[in-house]
Design brief:
The structure holds two protein chains of two kinds.
Chain A: H1 30-54, H2 65-74, H3 76-110, H4 112-127, H5 130-141, H6 146-169, H7 173-181, H8 186-223, H9 229-238, H10 242-270, H11 272-283
Helix pairs in contact in A: 2-10, 3-4, 3-6, 3-8, 3-9, 5-6, 6-8, 7-8, 8-9, 8-10, 9-10, 10-11
Chain B: E1 9-22, E2 25-38, E3 42-46, H1 53-61, E4 68-73, E5 76-77, H2 80-83, E6 87-90, H3 102-106, H4 108-112, H5 117-128, H6 146-159, E7 164-168, H7 176-193, E8 196-201, H8 204-210, E9 213-216, E10 231-233
Parallel strand pairs in B: 3-8, 3-9, 6-7, 7-8
Antiparallel strand pairs in B: 1-2, 1-4, 4-5, 9-10
The chains are: A mainly alpha, B alpha/beta.
């Protein structure tokens, strides 16, 4: 290779500006995203309906899917009233647990001392069965919303701490070094580098936490309450009102699915770059 | 070109050594290295992998402390902590923050220095054209090609306002065509801004093409001192 002679810098050839990655694989449209789950649900519900009718199953054991749907509509007010109670417990507990989880994760990552001191307790807190703790919470706080919120917060807390801690530690060490050469302080690196790069992990934790919080709320209600979907399920079960019981489960499931997707939606709004870069990677 | 005292030594290393200790031994990454970079010079360090190039840059950037030897910046003896934040550093990977737009990525150095947001953006935008990034201000790094990302990373380093800039194989990850274009472009930018640049590369052609001066690092046998030095004239001082 010959060494190119330098001439007037302004005469240097223009840079080959490669275009940004072209949109490759087409993303599925609305129909493509909605149809598959819809069709699959219809198939499952249809099979359920056919089974109960063809095998002549007693509605006390397994009501048909149509009967469950009808019971939800018939008892809409009852389900709605109790669903609101459960929803409140879930949201309060989730926010509380997630906030505490993120805060603790930041502390654990920032201070080695805090990590060494607190981490065993953190793990131990998950070894204590909620089943054992929940009745005590009821003794302490009565049949109020508090024990349920605490149970939800407890189950939300752990996945958020673990995921956030992993996220904060997963930051590219080279990136941290680069920011240090730019004169960034540790605190600022935490804020401007570690926290943003941890966000995808935080949201993974939040999704798991949201799924768990449904179970937490229902369990909290089972231990002691006078309202909520979990309480309703117990009451219906005792009355052998199996169809309505399945209705309550259906309402709870729909609520859970909605909340889960809500977290996903917030994720897309908060860290759009995460999905953009993932899409770009898929196209390459 | 503004009249600057050409030849004033900006960055100097004397007897620089770095040894990494492991259980059951150690590695002498650098031993007794002398190096100097004059104001406005473009100096390259070449050598095969594992000869301590990256270690050298980490020492010069203040990211690590040398085991022995002294570093001078503008004639002042500098501890690592004093070098940190004074020498611009651009690693091999662009390390742009995927959550920031290109514009916001390039102004990080100014932000850290306490420059106001509007002022920082104004200064950055002035250079977007020269760095071939016009039209991509609001895009995120994931949407840009490798060459453009590398230029954005270089703009970030430039804007940080350091007079001495270390480039660690900045074009190592690019294909050869893009690379050739980037080299030409770098020369152009360098001539316009007259920064003092120290470049690591393992590409002899690149070093010869770009530099006023080339240092060659050669790894010796472990345990012995590493003969590292030979300088050859590059294409000579620019005038």
């Amino acid at each position: 290779m010959t060494v190119p002679a330098r001439t007037d810098p302004r005469a240097a050839p223009p840079l080959a500006d490669e275009p940004p990655p072209a949109p490759g694989r087409r993303r599925p449209g609305l129909a493509g995203r909605v149809l598959p789950p819809l069709v699959f649900s219809l198939v499952v519900l249809g099979a359920w309906q056919a089974y109960t009718e063809l095998a002549d199953i007693s509605p006390l054991l397994l009501p048909s899917s149509w009967a469950v749907a009808v019971s939800v509509v018939d008892n809409a007010a009852l389900f709605a009233r109790n669903a609101v109670v459960t929803l409140q417990e879930i949201l309060l507990g989730f926010v509380l647990g997630a906030t505490a989880g993120v805060a603790l994760a930041v502390l654990l990552t920032y201070s080695r001392l805090a990590e060494r001191a607190v981490y065993p307790w953190l793990v131990a807190s998950q070894m204590v069965p909620i089943v054992a703790v929940a009745p005590i919470l009821v003794v302490w706080f009565g049949f109020t919303i508090v024990p349920k919120v605490v149970v939800v917060a407890l189950v939300c807390f752990f996945p958020v701490v673990v995921n956030t801690t992993d996220g904060l530690k997963s930051v590219d060490p080279e990136m941290v070094r680069l920011m240090r050469t730019l004169g960034m302080s540790r605190l600022r690196i935490m804020r401007s580098v570690r926290v943003p790069s941890a966000l995808p992990y935080v949201f993974s934790g939040l999704k798991v936490a949201m799924a768990l919080s449904m179970i937490g709320a229902v369990f909290g209600e089972w231990v002691g309450s006078s309202e909520g979907l979990g309480y309703l399920m117990l009451a219906l079960n005792n009355q052998l009102a199996t169809t309505e019981l399945f209705g309550a489960v259906l309402v709870l499931s729909l609520m859970g699915i909605s909340l889960f997707f809500l977290v996903g939606l917030v994720e897309r709004l908060v860290i759009p770059w995460h999905h953009e870069s993932r899409r770009a990677l898929q196209q390459q | 070109m503004p009249d600057r005292p050409e030849g004033r030594i900006r960055l100097q290393a004397r007897g620089l050594a770095k040894r990494f200790e492991f259980r059951g031994g150690g590695v002498q990454a650098l031993d007794g290295l002398d190096l100097e970079v004059a104001d406005g010079q473009f100096v390259s360090v070449i050598g095969p992998s594992g000869c301590g190039k990256s270690t050298l840059f980490n020492l010069l950037a203040g990211l690590e402390a040398p085991s022995a030897g002294t570093l001078f910046l503008d004639g002042d003896r500098c501890d690592p902590s004093r070098l940190l934040g004074r020498v611009g550093y651009m690693p091999q990977r662009d390390l742009l923050m995927p959550w920031r737009t290109i514009l916001d990525n390039t102004v990080i150095g100014l932000e850290v220095a306490g420059v106001g947001r509007a002022e920082a953006r104004r200064r950055a935008l002035e250079l977007f054209d020269a760095f071939g990034l016009t039209g991509f201000e609001r895009r995120r790094p994931g949407e840009l090609s490798g060459g453009m990302r590398q230029r954005a990373a270089l703009l970030r380093t430039f804007l940080a306002g350091r007079e001495v800039i270390l480039l660690d194989e900045p074009f190592g990850a690019l294909d050869s065509l893009t690379r050739a274009g980037m080299q030409q472009w770098l020369v152009q930018v360098w001539e316009e801004h007259r920064k003092t640049i120290l470049l690591i590369t393992h590409d002899v052609d690149e070093a010869l093409f770009l530099s006023d001066r080339v240092y060659v690092l050669t790894p010796g046998r472990a345990g012995s001192s590493w003969p590292w030095r030979s300088t050859c004239p590059g294409r000579g001082p620019m005038r």
